[in-house]
Hints:
The chain is α+β, with helices and mostly antiparallel strands. It has five helices and four strands.
Amino acid sequence: MTKNRDALKFFQAFIKEMIDIGGANLPKAISTKSGAKLGKIYKGQGLTLDIGTTLKQIYIALKGKPVIKQLNENRYEVIVKFAKKFCPIGGSNNPSRASIFQENICIPYTRGFLNEIFPQFTFGEDILNCILLNNQKTCHYILKVDKKKV
């Protein structure tokens, strides 16, 4: 477990350094592209059922326990609980870094993933709870889904 924690700390420091050196667009572009690559793999293996089920799969891979509820045609409530007050992407409680990781890693990665699989939609989000911000075990947001206008 110590090796994993050390690797995550290195990753988090690396992201912060990328932002300091290259600005916010550098990790955002990398995250979006990485999410799209994963989405392409999922599509290639036929693992894309619907938005909720597909989204659950990336959180399970991060060792989270996701609960995703479709609230209506255009909104999903996404709640991901982790075993500890530690985010696999951003680390432990650090409110000053919460928006950096949300805006440059979490959101672009998720959008890249979903846009690759479901190109007919655009995706947005309202973050309600973030481990980095609130020092809890839960990531909670509302995913907004809109059909692209042709």
